[in-house]
Design brief:
Layout (H helix, E strand, L loop, with lengths): L14 H27 L5 H6 L3 E4 L8 E6 L2 E7 L2 H9 L29 E5 L10 E3 L15 E3 L6 E2 L20 E5 L2 E4 L7
Antiparallel strand pairs: 1-9, 2-3, 3-4, 5-6, 6-7, 8-9
Length: 204
């Protein structure tokens, strides 16, 4: 029976050389693991990525009547509008012009499926992204032609990309590119002046 003279199988190799080969192999494997661990770790979500989906707490104590505050949740702009009695009065007036005045389509949680599309009538919370192609509409709160809108404009939001118009409850007007009303995110009140965006719940 012949004896192997190569180093690959280890037979015929002196013990000292065999120990050296083994030690080298172990060192190479350890180095490979040291490189692989950070590489695999790069696939783990970062703290910021994990936080991106977390609820956002908002203090609205300084949000005056008629003003809008924008915060970020899940990388999206969320509007918080403190509507005046005059702004709320337009919601009934504009209904004949709307494509979905009763919010029949599921663009809002059940507790916001009402005429003002909110938990509390005066505080309106909506995702500020047009339901057409994802542009961000701008606020046009004043009625009439004061902000470059038509004379019969009742106040609301206007998408500059393709002209979609929404009332002060984020409901889309008829015959617009946007197919549905603006989306209402899950939200609830932690206190009278503290909102939690991203968590369901009724009025607190």
């Amino acid at each position: 029976m012949s004896t192997c003279t190569t180093c690959q199988c280890g037979e015929g190799m002196d013990p000292q050389r065999r120990r050296l080969l083994f030690a080298t192999s172990v060192a190479a494997a350890a180095a490979g693991m040291a490189v692989a661990v950070p590489f695999v770790g790069s696939f783990a979500p970062s703290g910021r990525a994990l936080a991106a989906g977390a609820p956002v707490e908002v203090d609205i104590s300084k949000l005056a009547a008629g003003e809008m505050l924008t915060v970020e949740w899940r990388g999206k702009p969320v509007w918080i509008v403190n509507r005046t009695p005059e702004m709320l009065a337009t919601l009934t007036k504009v209904e004949p012009k709307l494509a979905d005045p009763g919010s029949e389509r599921p663009q809002q949680p059940a507790y916001a499926a009402n005429a003002h599309r909110s938990i509390r009538p005066e505080i309106f919370v909506a995702i500020g992204i047009c339901t057409h192609l994802g542009c961000s509409p701008t606020e046009k709160f004043k009625e009439g032609a004061a902000q470059g809108m038509s004379p019969d404009w009742d106040g609301g939001f206007f998408c500059p990309c393709h002209g979609s118009q929404f009332d002060l409850a984020g409901r889309v007007l008829k015959n617009m590119p946007a197919p549905t009303n603006l989306e209402i995110p899950p939200h609830r009140y932690l206190a009278d002046t503290r909102l939690l965006i991203g968590a369901d719940g009724a009025a607190g």
